[in-house]
Write a structure and sequence with these properties.
Oligomer: single chain
Protein name: ABC transmembrane type-1 domain-containing protein
Distance between the termini: 18 Å
Strand content: under 5%
Number of strands: 0
Shape: elongated
Helix content: over 70%
Pfam families: ABC_membrane
CATH architecture: Up-down Bundle
Structural class: mainly alpha
Keywords: ATP-binding, Membrane, Nucleotide-binding, Transmembrane, Transmembrane helix, Transport
Radius of gyration: 24 Å
Organism: Cervus elaphus hippelaphus
CATH class: Mainly Alpha
GO molecular function, one term: ATP binding
CATH topology: ABC transporter transmembrane region fold
Largest sheet: none
Number of helices: 5
Length: 180
């Protein structure tokens, strides 16, 4: 978390700087792309909170499964003596399936975050320049390259690193709760 914690203030600061630079170059059309970027960042923040919830549930299932496994290992002689192997194996399998279900949901959430990262800049550029043209302006190469560069910077910090920072904070909070 200490490596990514500073992204929580750098991400919004970078977005503000990009808004100012794009405003100076393409005017009000930059707000359309930045509004979409802010929507993506809010969705990423929501997914970070959802990841915290999934991480906490996964940790609870993992703790339950490990506690059960420790009990099984401790009482293996009794389990063997009464031939309870099958019922305990089914219990542990059920617990593991619940744990894997939460891990799978977390993986899907990570996949959605990567999809946002891969597609966001293209969608934001499309919206920005569509708005620019619809307002009656002509696009120049200078404007396109500047917008691509600035959106790439804000995409990296705002859409990739910002959710990772939120995810790291969420994992830290979940770990601290488990330790307590």
């Amino acid at each position: 978390v200490t490596i990514r914690l500073h992204i929580l203030w750098i991400g919004p600061l970078t977005a503000i700087t990009v808004i100012i630079l794009l405003w100076m170059e393409i005017g009000i059309s930059s707000l359309a792309g930045m509004a979409l970027l802010i929507i993506f960042m809010l969705l990423q923040s929501f997914s970070g909170k959802l990841f915290l919830s999934l991480r906490s549930k996964t940790a609870a299932f993992t703790d339950t499964r490990l506690r059960t496994m420790n009990e099984v290992i401790t009482g293996i002689r009794t389990i063997k003596m009464y031939a309870w192997e099958k019922s305990f194996a089914e219990l542990i399998t059920r617990l593991r399936r619940k744990e894997i279900s939460k891990i799978l949901r977390s993986s899907y959430l990570d996949g959605v975050n990567l999809i946002f990262f891969d597609t966001s800049s293209k969608v934001i550029l499309f919206v920005t320049f569509t708005t620019y043209v619809l307002l009656g302006n002509l696009i120049t190469v200078k404007q396109v390259f500047l917008a691509i560069t600035l959106y790439q910077v804000v995409k990296f910090t705002g859409i990739l690193l910002f959710p990772l920072a939120i995810e790291s904070v969420a994992e830290t909070v979940a770990s601290v709760r488990r330790i307590k």
